[in-house]
Amino acid sequence: MRFTYYAVVAAALLSACAPAEITTPPVSITPKNKADAVGLDVYAGPRRRGNPVPSFRGQETLAVRSVGIGKDGQRTELSGVQCLLDAGVYSASFTTPANVIVPDYGPNSPAIFVRCTHEDQSGSTTVTAFNATTQQRMQNAAAGGVLGVIIVGAVTAAKVDNEKDEFKYPAVSVTLRKKK
């Protein structure tokens, strides 16, 4: 009986922390130089002209959320917050929570800056792409303890291949603070 009570309380607490479901359609980026872009590939034109630009690997969906002070005065995830994403060569405008479709250029993926404003709150953050292949190897090694991490870390350092490894952006959470 006691176990059931604790299980219900734990489930209730965890559900209160669950992020808002993203129900809006994904938002695509807008290339800053539309003449050089083909779809999401903002470097297609320069690449076609023989310029040394990053290889286009496809697309990635970037989840963007905002956290601020809600109507009840508590810090919580906010919905309907206006945001602007800027990566230098492309941008996007949307309201959170949102999924933004961004181009994948592997290790050459640009840093992404996101700025959000809501009533008397604002915030910003910058994220960079990370080597997801290396991260996965290290997580698997952690299960083997300290010795596993040391061995896999040495092997991983020798096996990093930026041309073949998968790179990803972390999910974005913009923390809003009261404007001064």
Task: Give the count of helical stretches.
Answer: 4
Which range best describes the helical content: under 10%, 10-25%, 25-40%, 40-55%, 55-70% or over 70%?
25-40%
The largest beta-sheet arranges its strands as: 2-6-5-8-9-13
Structural class: alpha+beta
- The number of E-state strands comes to 13
Distance between the termini: 51 Å
- Rounded to an integer in angstroms, the radius of gyration calculated over CA atoms is 20 Å
SSE string: HEEHEEEEEEEEHHEEE
What are the low-pLDDT stretches, counting only 5+ consecutive residues below 50? 1-16
User: Strand percentage, roughly?
Assistant: 35-45%
Q: What's this entry about, in short?
A:
By secondary structure, the chain is α+β, with helices and mostly antiparallel strands. The chain has helices at residues 2-16, 44-48, 132-142, 145-159, and strands at residues 27-28, 30-31, 58-69, 75-78, 81-86, 90-96, 98-104, 112-118, 121-127, 130-131, 167-168, 172-175, 177-178. Residues 1-16 have low confidence and may be disordered.
